[in-house]
Amino acid sequence: MAPLPFLGVSLASAAAVYGAGIAVGNEYLYFASYTVAQYIVLATAWNILGGYTGYVNFGTAGFFAVGAYTSVVLHKTVNLPLLIMIPVGGLVCAVLGLAMGYLTLRLRGVFFAIATLAMAIVLHTLVVNWSFVGGARGAYIIRPREVMFFASYSEYLFAVMLLLAALAVAIARWVERSRLGRGLAAIRDDEIAAECSGVPTLKLKLVATTLSGFLMGIAGAPFPYYVSYVDPAGAFNLAYGVNSIAMPLIGGMSSWVGPLIGALLLGTLQQVATVTISSAANLLLVGVLLVVFVTVAPNGIVGLLQKVRGQSGARKKQNG
Amino acid sequence: MAEILLSVVGVGKRFGGFTALEGIDFQVRRGERVGLLGPNGSGKSTLVNCVTGTLRNEAGEIIFRDERIDRLTTHQRIRRGIARTFQIPRPFASMTVRENVEIALLYAGAPAGNERVPHGATEDDAHHILEEVGLQAKADERSGSLTQVDLRKLELARAMAAHPQLLIADEAMAGLSMGEVDEILALLMRLNQAGVSIVMIEHIMYAVMKFSERIAVLVAGRKIADGDPQSVIADPEVQRAYLGE
Amino acid sequence: MDVTLNLLINAIVAGILLGGFYAAVSIGISISFGMLDIVNIAHPTFIILGSFIAYIVNLHMGVDPILVTFLLSPAFFALGVGMYSWYYVAFERRGREALSGLAFFFGILFIGEVALLLVFGVDYRTVNAPYIGPTLEWGAFNLPLRLFVPFLVSVGMVIAVQLFMTRTFTGRCILAVSQNQMALQLMGANPQRIKAIAFGLSIATAAVAGAFLIIIQPIEPSIGREYIGRVFAVCVLGGMGSIPGTLLAAIILGVAESFTATFYGPSWAPAVSFGILLLTLAIRPAGLLGR
Fold this sequence. Notes:
A: 320 residues; 1% strand; B: 245 residues; alpha/beta; 37% helix
């Protein structure tokens, strides 16, 4: 399917979920679905760099929080509509991704990974020391009382995040099948051989970090409105870092389907576990699942499905 | 005599205290077949890496088609017409054989400056190249599972996809049987007849002598001989340093 | 004496003392990351684990925290050997350490933190030892024993590791692994066994350093995160696997953090290590004493 029709399908799916959501009309359902959709964006964003290019970003929480705090700053200064804040948050994170990439991507991949982890911690420190956005105490965001076309602000946020998830998935799929995506896959497989096949590796890696950062930023931008109260501990929660890695790894990293499956499964599971067990226990579950999957099923659920299909179809004509 | 395609002038490279290359002068003319000999650790691979940009030379200049290229990145040099194969094959292991070739076609196969490849063109081109090297039957196999000789062929196919004017074949025949060596030799000959200059780095003397119009010898980072194969092989210094050890 | 000068001298002293401790927490990462090329980002988890074990034993039996972790170091060593075996079978042998291996350690880091959080909660914990309260004073010059004792033991531990690496056959094998696996096989040693020993040593030093940590400051499970930036900054700045470099880099970091805390406020301290890490990567990735 060509990119544009796929975007149509993707948006239609999001609209269908939205329709089902308002048919039920439960505020808690909006909140839970918002979180799952937010994880679809984060996992998809992470996978553009991690899965397609082979560079591990541990700093998802940092990007997410920068997106969120960009909205806080905008809210306190010019108070733009949310739909404008989202691309602004994305752009700020895109620049951050570009800067991180420029500083560390000429070195070995592990240095990039370590730098992203440390970066999240430093950004955390910066925000804690920045009294304008509330420092360690955090900041309250007053939601607009009503919003056009929607019954409530929660419903509006739910719709916005579904839209962002649909866009993120369509972008990831487009990247995957484009010349860019082929170049990224070559980098992942063998960077020196890629360069010797004419692939401008540094430029492509920078494009990937920038795009990945942008998508993480747009996932974070509506966050202050979602929680009404944002503090560094919440915005920089390591859970974002772990989930954005665990979801693609568990789903499968080689295509756009993997992060989507991973986010739907793990995101839903956590929503259920938070209600039924405790929030700390469900984070432990994510950690354990991550370790188990990387050890025994490195290609994730998609890889397992391909294996099963490969075995059953082995007698038929062999097809890569 | 044909024009000079590649000119390496006074190139030097050090790793810490170790001098890997010193004062290397080396030229390749258009359409020429050159053998590059030297014992292990003599600097052959370092020279290849300096020419392709995987390493940066510290002294000297590298000129390709009248342009100084030694401050360009590797992919820029590849796009200007220099391709190489790797001593130890480096396939894109998660891709099929065809996709491996398509990467080079997509990123280096277009004429210089033209970034866009017409849609659908790459698949046909990949097919032709795979046919040329004899891998068309394995086009849809995963490159990670190829045999040694097929990996060597894939290396060549990927280099050919970059439409090079100069191909550096770094031990493209190591570990192959006699029959397979002849197969690769014939392939390189055909490429050369199509106008591609070839530098062959090889330990298999039979292949080097059969293939090369000229031979250069490196020992301990210096060039000790450069000339027609018979006289280079007869050179007492070459015999002492390399062949007779 | 001038107040600023006074502050300055005490900041330098505190920084050097802190630096000695940073060397102890980082020496393990210099072994695992610097020498074995294993990117163990879960290293701080083992530091915190050591802290909590020292805390429990100290609380219930009153044993000196440093003594506790030294006595238990064979168990930590065995834990490290077990971890390496897992890592080797699942990732290194299959050439998957770059992505899956990194994710694996990230998972371990996370599991460790959450598990400790479930058991101990978010309260800050402290230990009791006779040297935690007193401070030696000479005029304006302060030497808190709470920092001085861990400093002495840390430096002793670093020197012991350096002697082990250079004077024993096993130690020289570990150094050989970091340079050339072929050379190691010529020495007749099994690389996996040597790496398992080295990784065990790396985890044991982390856990022992955990006791120093809980003496220096009260701890809670998520404090480990601050040490990710620190240990990698020290390892990279020190030249990836150079033990003298590790000590030097740790002292530089300690002094830099101490200055920052004194003149700008302690809440800025975690940013220092990241600054040093990024600067090193941008300017001299080989580190101070790099090969």
